Amino acid sequence: MRRTIFDADHDMFREGARRWFVNEVEPQTARWREQGHVEPEWFRRAGEQGYLLMWADEACGGAGIADFRYEQILIEECTRHGDIGFFLSLHSRLVAPYIGHLGTEEQKRQFLPKCASGEHILGIAMTEPGAGSDLAGIRSRAEDRGDHWLLNGSKTYISNGQIGTLFVVAARTVPDSRYGLGLFLVEAGMDGFRRGRNLEKMGLKAQDTSELFFDNVRIPKSHVLGEPTQGFRYLTTFLAEERLINACWNIAHAQTAFDLTLDYVKERRAFGRPIGTFQNARFRMAEMRAQLDAIQCFVDQCVLEHNAGRLTAEVAAEAKLLSSELENRVMDECVQLHGGAGYMQEYRICRMFTDARISRIYAGTSEIMKEIIGRSLGLDDRKL
Questions:
Q1: Does pTM surpass 0.90?
Q2: For this structure, is 242 an active site residue?
Q3: What is the number of domains present in the chain?
Q4: Most buried among 56, 58, 251, 311, by the most CB within 10 A?
Q5: Residues of the chain by 3-state class (helix, strand, coil), percent to 5
Q6: Domain carrying residue 302
Q7: Which listed residue (76, 242, 305, 327) is catalytic?
Q8: Around Cβ 67, how many Cβ atoms within 10 Å?
Q9: Predicted confidence (pLDDT) per residue in 230-262, tens digit
Q10: Which of 53, 85, 120 is the last residue of a domain?
């Protein structure tokens, strides 16, 4: 289905991004998956292309482009021609805005230019062994010691955990309040900060996911983002964009799998004819095409709503829920249509299948998305 949300400038940007991902990034992806991480220099190379923090002011190293469609294009081209584990958008649109929107002018000048150039690689440390989607369950704590904060605790499943150089860390600052959290900027090399192992995952092999430990880390007052007791509110405010980013990833991943499979069922022959000409395969492909078009339209509309400042957390949850569930159904169908080849690592669809499974879990599980949507309908046991 023809998409109508992009103009000529977007198309030109896409052409340039596609060339970069095809010619520069794609040849690296097998090595990244083998070693379990992207080399930091590739963030610097992305910065040289102007692909990091495009929304930031020019004084902070960005291009002053707030239009989310440019980020959407990068997500789509990286997913199709690079590797879904190259988390540029996590760096640029998920973590950096905490500094851009909550940071002081001094913090912006200190950190954003290095983030835009790729000298700093960002991560966000929320998840803990006992606290995932339930942010109020965070147990890491930060104590005000007058001229600094003292941070203690541990985090797990942190993206960019091995290669990251600057982390936004959520920690409890009000011991007797479930929602009394603060956000702190922790730089690699601070005394008491250490990385755990690079966790072995089912998929997303190119993406480093790690444990992080904080043992009496002295956090300067200059490294506190916003009010030190309002972290819970800040985190929930930024979740809508995080879920939109994930929806864009999910549908782009599913679209790519569909296209690979369409080529395969046209070429693979059985009983003297292409397998795509059998009714079962033809009907499965037709159903996927219709569902992909429908969810793509919804996600595109969410992008326009986000640009206009109207995207709600509830609608973003719908986009994340629908796109991740569809992505996983599409992956399963595509592996099935590949037959035995779909189970072989040498075929991309095999790797995409395992890469996709996390999308129903991270950035809020499908069950949490349903809770958010259901409560927005007034179906809340706390109020009925």
A1: yes
A2: yes
A3: 3
A4: 251
A5: 55, 15, 30
A6: 233-376
A7: 242
A8: 15
A9: 999 999 889 899 999 999 999 999 999 999 999
A10: 120
